[in-house]
Amino acid sequence: MGNYNERQRVGILTFHRAINYGALLQAYALQEALKKMGCLPEIIDYRSPVLESQHLEARLSNCQNAKDIARFIFYAKHQNRKMKIFRDFSAANLNLSDVYENTEQLRKISLEYDKFICGSDQVWNHRITDFDRNYFLDFIEDIAKKNSYAASFGISSIPPEHVNEYRNLLKGFNHISVRENQGRKIINELVNREAELVLDPTLLLSKQDWESIAADYKKKKNYILLYMFGNSLTMKTFVENLARQTGCEIVLISYSVIKRINATYEKSVGPAEFLGLFQNARYVVTNSFHGTCFSLNFNKDFFLEMLPESQGVNSRLENILDLFDLRSRQIISGENANTRKTIDYGEVNKRLLVERQRSLDFISKIISN
After folding, report:
1. Which of 80, 217, 303, 307 has the highest local Cβ count within 10 Å?
2. What is the pLDDT of residues 86-141, one digit of tens each?
3. Minimal CA–CA distance to 364: which of 153, 24, 93, 115?
4. In angstroms, rounded to a whole number, what is the distance separating the alpha carbons of residues 206 and 211?
């Protein structure tokens, strides 16, 4: 990788404050990739009012009914502990700017950085941000500074009432890259440009990079890590069968008090512990995109179930399986015929190195012109 002007200051705008493993670790990964290229990256500590309201400390005073109080009693301790671990991880591992709370404040810093990058994550999903234009870098006048890396719309098409707004916001970019084919299609239709399809930032870092910040998980030796969104009965059936077949125990990342499966429940898991759970697992069963990314990076035998279509996020899960020719790892109706087969990581890692280099080359373009 070329060494660029040491003083090249790059501001990253993303969902770095979400209490979400993928969101925080992709922000860290893009920062580290830029550092390796000789840049001085900073994550802009923008506190979007909409997003901040979704990640608040649990307080009894915020409970509005009996259901809220019950949730508080059972979950608040774990929820608040997890939030503290996330904030501590960010303070220790992210190069954060000063805190900014509105567009006016962001406008003032537009001259302080040589380049800006928005992404990865669903920064262009108007439903998540309440159409916060700052995530389109709308506060920057100099187009040469505006870039996206692996940005996502998180929706398959733009609603007609938002087409003009999206078109105007996306016109003013220098380099555009997205993380899904659907995003390429949207950009092509709106502004008649070919966006580059790049890897999620978590795949820009090597297995060794991630191991250097992972917390070693020693409670269990031979285990299947179950990392899932929602409560999929077909995944539950699959993982129980896999446990019987292999003699492995199940470890589940969850602080649910209702035990729907015979497993060790790991509660209040922080980002470093999350990495350690992947690093030491014998198998991974997931329906998460970042769960898949970390399975790939740690060279794990994994199985993936698609999320319900109503969530509209399967395009990225399909993309990543197709990219590494791993459709054979998909769980369909609670079954997969390849549980006895291991993944050929020789081939997968070769492809990953090629795709990683291609994605890093795209970042090189951003910081060199």
Report:
1. 303
2. 999 999 999 999 999 999 999 999 999 999 999 988 999 999 999 999 999 999 99
3. 115
4. 9
Q: What is the pLDDT of residues 59-70, one digit of tens each?
A: 777 788 888 777
- pTM of structure: 0.94
Amino acid at 331: I
